[in-house]
Amino acid sequence: LQTGGGGMRAAMTPALGIAACVAASVLYGLAANYTRKRLTGVAPMALAAGSQLSATAVLLLPAIWAWPEAAPSATAWGAAVLLSLLCTGLAYVLYFRLIAHAGATNAISVTFLIPGFAMFWGWLIMGETPTPTMLLGCAVILLGTALATGLLKPPARAAAAP
Length: 162
Hints:
Blueprint: E1 2-3, E2 10-11, H1 14-38, H2 44-65, H3 74-102, H4 104-109, H5 114-126, H6 132-149
Antiparallel strand pairs: 1-2
């Protein structure tokens, strides 16, 4: 797969994409716990704004480096601004409020549900057919989420007699 713009050509391998997904998952988990431990009492709006501004700073140079030869249209810029404000910005405000009120474990557990909802919306909107393996995966995710949040408790083990 070749990507690039503005004269840049870089070979991308699936391993790089997989590594990025794994790193994002690990960092997402660490961030929720760090937020709960170190940033308790900070307003969710301030946390959301700070995370978005720092992400912008980190991505600014790569964005300039990979700038496309043809400038994006006003519609594309408008769509990007709406997505960033409504989908990302609002979601972060809600997420940090959730960490403050429900705890890091419960807040991050909602992300476990993304594959199930993606499958549901794919079926409902795009007519995709869920496979038995996909449904089994969703069942495992729901079971794991219920266990992680304490909604479902494993059976207690009997104490061994001395």
